[in-house]
Every structure is written in C-alpha cells, then in structure tokens.
C-alpha cells in the first residue's frame, strides 16, 4: 500500500493515515451491515447492539494485552468526552441505526447516514474551531451527493412500507445521524491534542456504550421482550462474532484512528462511504448494478479525491 501511494500518488501514506483508516472502516462496515441486516430479522436491535459491543470489548482487551499497550495517561476531561461519545455514538446511535434498518431497510437508513458528515463539520466548526476550506466543503458535498445517489435508487424488489414504519425509520435514521455526528465531534475533542491511543479510545467508548444499554436490557427483560432462543444457535453466534469483529472491533478502532489524525468533518465523510463498498458485494451476490449506481460511485470518488488532494 505504501508503495502504491509513493509511486502513483507521490505522497507518503503516513500523511493520510486518517483518511485511509476511514475508508478501511467504511469497507468493513459495509460487510458488517449486510450481516447485521440478516441478524436483525432474528435478534432485536437492543440485544444485537449489546451482544456485538460485548464481543468487541473482549477482542479489544485481548489486543491491548497482546500489544502491551498499558493504560494511557489520561485526564478527566478527555476521558469524560470519550465516555460521553460512546454513550451517544455507540450506545444510542447504533441502537437507532439498527432500529432504522428494521423499520424501512438498509438503503434508506444509509441515506439518512449521509446527513452525519455535514452535521459533524458544522458542529466541529462551531465548537472545535476546525475550519474547512472551500475545497474540503466541495469534497464533502460531492461525497454526500454520490453516496445519496447510490442509496436512493429504487430497487426492483423493494416493497412498500406502511406510513408508520416509514416515519419510524426516518426518526430512527435521523437520530442515528445526529448521534454519529455528536459522537464524532466528542471523540475528536478528546483525541486531537492528547496522547490517548485509538485502541484505548475505542475500548473506552465501547464500555460506555455497553453500560448505557444495560438498564434498557433490564427493562426489556422485565417486560418479557428479551429473546434467548436465537442465542442458542451456533450459526447465529458465529455470524454475530464475525460481524462484531469486522464492524465493531476493527471498524471502531479504525474510526478512532481516522478521527485522531484527520479533521472530523473529513473523517466522518469518508466513514460514510460504506454504501459504495456494498456495490461489489451486491455484484458478487448476483444483483444488477445500474448506470445510476455507477454514476454515484464516480461522484463520490471525485469528492474523496478532493478531500485527499485539496485539503
């Protein structure tokens, strides 16, 4: 990868490690989102969010011991920001995202997710004074338009949803986008001027995200809404572990790397390109890809190029 960057782009990879991490995370989230869409038909969003969080925490803890990354020196303010970021972005945001998928499908939910980058850039500009030049704003706009162009395409096998499901999906999708934006800004504020490694930042956020879910799980248990039968299936457990490994463990680790080394508006834009990575998966699964979808990819890649070259 380093050789490709040096030969064809004539720029060192380390100068864009945040952008590369964001694109890798987006690709992993694309794979995980396909799996979560299948799991969501058998496991409710609350249980699925809790389960994937616990698995990712275990994997991150093992990684920390293997890498011998001892507890970092961290003051109360950055730690509080990371924990709050986990509560909002992972605990509540991922819960809303999974609920939106169940309400009106992955394509529309991904469309709602494209609202996060401009929200993030505006919030960061107000609270972090992260000024983005006109080229960066154009890159954000092109990327969002390209992704939106892809995910809003009407699919031949799409079925109509009820009005209630539609508005529930819009509400959950909007909540997920807002939570993603706020969580990203809080993470950036905690990591920008500190020495907290992305690995530990990911662990702090996940722990906070899981802890905030426990009272909700307890209430669901009291009301008899917890489903345990599906968790007795080996296939379901292994599939959940795979999705958690790709989308939560590696995905959030790469996300924190991107946020630490890249302005949060740019990082969140690149992190929202997951729909573009789903297209090769769709082709492999035998789905037809239209010229409109291809045009959306071209537009989004043009936006990504602006973010890389004209930052």
UniProtKB/TrEMBL annotation:
Keyword match Ligase: no
Domain EamA: 18-151, 169-308
Keyword terms, alphabetized: Membrane, Transmembrane, Transmembrane helix
Classification via Pfam families: EamA
Membrane-crossing residue ranges in chain numbering: 20-39, 46-66, 78-98, 110-128, 134-151, 172-191, 203-221, 233-252, 264-284, 291-310
Keyword rRNA processing recorded: no
Family classification: Belongs to the EamA transporter family.
PANTHER family linked: ACYL-MALONYL CONDENSING ENZYME-RELATED, SOLUTE CARRIER FAMILY 35 MEMBER G2-RELATED
The protein, known as: DMT family transporter
Organism annotation: Plectonema radiosum NIES-515
